[in-house]
Structure formats: C-alpha cells, structure tokens
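Illustration 12: Major facilitator superfamily (MFS) profile domain-containing protein.
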Amino acid sequence: MAKKSAAVACLVFGGLFLQYMMRTTITVAIPAALEEYHGLYTDMEDVFFRWRGGTSKLVLNYTQLEVGAIFGTFYIGYIPSRLLGGHLALRFSALRVFQVSLLVTSLLHIWAPVALAFHVSVIIIIRILRGFTEGIAFPAAFTLLVEWLPSFTADRARIITTVPIVMYLGFAAGFFINSMFLPLFGWFSPFALFGIFGILGTVVIETFNCVYHITDGPTEDDLKDMVTRRKSSTTESLKMNGRISSNTPIPWRAMMTSPAVLSVMLCEAVLKCGQHLALLYAPTIFSQVGKRAIIEIGLLSMASPLLVALILPITLVIIPGLKLTDPPRKIFNTIGFFGFGTGLMVVAMKPQYIWMTMFLAVGLGMTAFSIAAGFNLTPMEIAPQYGTIIRGVSAAFGTAVGAFGIIFVGWFTEDKTTSQWSIVIVTEACLLCAAAVLFIMFGRSTVQPWARPWERAPEPPRPQLRDTASADRLVSPAESLADVMEAVSQESIQPDMDSYYKPKGTYYKAYKKGGGQKPE
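Figure caption equivalent — predicted structure in token form:
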C-alpha cells in the first residue's frame, strides 16, 4: 500500500509540476519574439516555420493589449473546466481524466508557436482550449489524493499548501529551462521541449498504472491499511468536518453576505492579481522596464517563485503546531500582504533590475505566510461543513478577477513605458494593503453561527388556549379537529371533558362545526 500511495503522489504532483512548467513558456517566448530574438542555431526555426514560405525569420507584431488577451483568455476555459473536472473524475477513472488532461495539454502546447505565427485569434483559441484541458486536471488530482492518501488529505491545511509548493516549483523550473533553451534554438523551442516532456509523462503514468493497477482503485487489503493509517490522523478532523446531510440546506444567502467570507474572497482576488503580475508579467517587466536582454529574463524571473517554494515548506511544518486563532491568523496574513505590497512599491520606485529582482522575490516570498497561515485556511475554520464550497467560490472569483486584471494590465501598458508599469505596480501594492486591512477588520477563524447545521434553534412554544367558560383553567394546545378527537379518546381525561365542552366554549364550537358529537 505504501508503494502504491507513493506512486500516486509522485504521478499527481509530477503531472501538475509539468503543467505549471508549460505555463511559463509563453510568458518568456512572446517578449523574445517581439524583440526579434532567434537564438544561436536558427536552422531549426527555418525548418519549423517553412510552411510560411521563404526563409525570412518570424517576427511577431502583437500589441501589448493582444499580449494581455493571450495571457488572460487562458482562464476562460480554465474556470468552467474545474467544475466539469469534478464530475468527470467521479464518472470515470480519475487517473484517466488526469492522464488525458496532461496529454492534450502537451499537444496543444507543441502547436502554440504555429498558432502564434498564424494569427492572434488562433493562439487565443489554443489558449482557451489549454485552460479547459488543464482545468480538469485539478479535480482529478484531488480525487486521486483523497482516494489513495487518506492520512495526507485528512489534514486539509497540508493539501491546501502543498499544491502551491508544486506550482511555484514548476514556475521556477520552467523559467530556468526556458532561459537555457531559448538562447540556443529560439523562442519557439521550449514549446516543443515541454510538450515532449508532457507526452513522456503520460507514458510514465500508463507504465505505473500497468504495474499497480491504479485505475482499479484500492483493493480490500489497501482499504484495511488505509483504515489503520487513517484512525490516528482523522479522528480530530472528523469531529469538526462532518458530512453535510442531503436534507441540510446550504445557507447560500448567509454565506455570501458574511463579512468573513467576503474578506476571504477579496484577499483571494487581490493575491491572484499580484501573483499574475509577479509571475506571468515578470519576463515582460524585466524586458521593458529593467531593459535586460532576452537571455536574462528567464533567470531573473525564476528568483520569485523559487523563494516562495523554499519558504512554504518551512511554514507548513512550523505554523500548524501553533494552533492559531483570530489574532495570529490576521498577523500572518498581514505580514504576507503588506510584505508583498512593500516589495512592489520598491520595484516601482527603483526600476533597476537588481532591485526589481530582489524585492519582487522577497515580496512574493512573504505571501507564503498568507497561504500557510492566513486567509487561505480560514474557510475550513469559519465553516467546517461548507469550507470546500467557500474555497471553490473564492477560487473561481479570484481567478476571474485575476484574468480581467491580466487583460487590464496589457491595455494600460500599451506604450510599454516605465511610468505606466509603475502605476500598475503601485495600484496592486495599494490593493494588497487594503485587502489586509479589511481582513483584520472582518476576517474570522471561528465557526460562524450560520455554519452550524447541527444546531437548531428551539421551536417557539405554541400559545396555550384558554377556555372561555373558565378563565382560570388552561386547555392543552390543539391545532386541528384531530387533536380534539385524540384528546377525547383518552380515558384518563374523559371523565372531566363535560366541564370543557360548554355551548359557548371555543373547543365545543370547533368540535360541533366538524360534525362531532358531545361526549356522553
């Protein structure tokens, strides 16, 4: 069982790692193509684009807005596919869904430079399809982790923070490999390289599946071993994270109007915009603001995600043992957001590549505290029953706002001047600080009243009816004629019924109106 679980973990995180590496290629390739950088060995480029006719080098003439659209339209397919991926992972084998996602993403990645050379509309379609195929990988990955690593997924904080580590490592490795291959073979070469890596990844997944039969699911022996491993790690988790009954209504209105939830959504959206600025636009910033050569932008962009990937494991080990409540949770979130905002401020005021590299890396690295101990974990604390719903809504909202922010940056920096980039960077820094302040005011890490479906308010007592013939005597509450008939049939109270059924009595009138007879 241990070998199978380790194999599944390696396949899942390895596949996600490859997909994040692929995301970096276009962020480095487009600035290189716009600067007419073709590499040392250009014969391959002539062969690759021979279909265009002639031997002239390929030069892209995209505007800054079109570049922003190419970056941002990826999320048009990415957001809805996250919902579809969960259904596919339950309907079919989660490993097959994950494998198909990686394979199709790799094939689309190989054809991306051809689409770039053809027309902007073609590459936008490719990017939307890339987002769609890549989005279904995450629900399938989480399904595999929950199925094969129950002791790992029982600690939700661990899985929530482990995926960002893989993401940042993928970005760092992607920037590094791009900086190595692009100077040699041209801007298009990393597309083919990472695409081949992805295809080989699907072959490796199939090989492991043939050995361990992962698609068949855990065997009975595997399940027994899981139960043994799970008892010690999930006892506390099960106390707080019970399943939602199918008859329990989800308090959508209370949830979506809760200040604690809205503060989490705001932090998610603002941080997404900052991450896109520091990751997707980093090569462009170093090229247009830092005035660095194309050969250097990949290495300079690598520093930020690499530092975050190094800090996150440390926070993942140390912080969970602190048993945080409201004040420390807000302190760590403030450190992350204000640290990132301060770093961006320095980048805007010091547009030299050394200062930019240093403070962009330190600023983005500070967000590790927000991810590991800040707003990122509060959904599971304010609403254990609905934490995954809040996480899903928050992630979708943040991704949508981040996609809009990518396109807005491309539109605003149309002239590619340092002053335009400074305004964008300062605006993002101010938004980070504002989001941190609002989280201090409205953020919570305790279970909210609307998130307690197991607690029901006691029913208000029904009013007791008085007999009109005797003001001093109370009659048991009766909601209908059936209640009266039931009371009449009880022998213990029949001898005393005559005193209640007087002609002017309320019960007597109701009883006669129903066609009943006065008891003898």
